[in-house]
Amino acid sequence: MASSRPLAIIGTRDGTAKSYFGPSDTIVISGGRANGVAVGQACFVRRLLSPDRSIARAATVLHTAGWVRIVEAARDRSVAAVAGVCGHLQRGDVLETLRWPAPLAVSRPGEPDYDNSGPVMFGLAGRSLIAENAYFVLGLGDAHGVCPSQRLIMFRHTLNGLRAVTELGQAIAVAAPPSQQQLA
After folding, report:
1. pLDDT tens, 43-95?
2. What is the CA radius of gyration of the chain?
3. Residue 178 — φ and ψ, nearest 5°?
């Protein structure tokens, strides 16, 4: 999409006053053919999420809320059908051309290095409880040697930190930006 401002969800096709959208909705997008939008084009729908201020002020996560397919494109507006969701889409979410990421070739298991550890900062939408198949931000990044596809051991120190640990599970790093946070 060729536009200086990101395209965003601005409402529903029928003018219904809705703020949240799901799989059966058809939504109006803030740009059209003049912005490079074409019928049949697929787009991710994304938003920046900030966790609870008590966790980490500077950290934000680019959340993929779902994906849409353009079904009509006028000069300055378009209409999209919701093709898939990861929770819900909402008014103001922005569109980005859909390019599925390449599958990760997950690293082989190795020996855990309990001395080279970092905290789990928060889950998506500021969640403090992390469940299986959930994304979260870790307080380590590429500066600490973490790279995409790396296996990570989730653990908790026990016995008042006397080097005994309880392993809680495994995670796979899916991104390692040059900051101090990453998605795992």
Report:
1. 999 987 765 554 445 556 677 889 999 999 999 999 999 999 987 899 999 99
2. 20
3. -75, 15
Output phi, psi for 182, to 5 deg: -150, 160
Task: Quote the CA–CA distance of 164 and 154 in Å, as a whole number.
Answer: 14
Show Cβ contacts of residue 147 under 8 Å, excluding neighbours closer than 6 positions: 173, 176
Query: Whole-model pTM above 0.85?
Result: no
Which residue's structure tokens are 């995670």?
171
Question: Is the CB of residue 45 less than 8 Å from the CB of residue 66?
Answer: yes
Structure tokens at 94: 């922005």
Whether 177 contacts 141, CB under 8 Å: yes
Can you list the domains of the chain with their CATH numbers?
A: 9-97 (2.40.10), 120-183 (no CATH)
Residue 79, amino acid: V
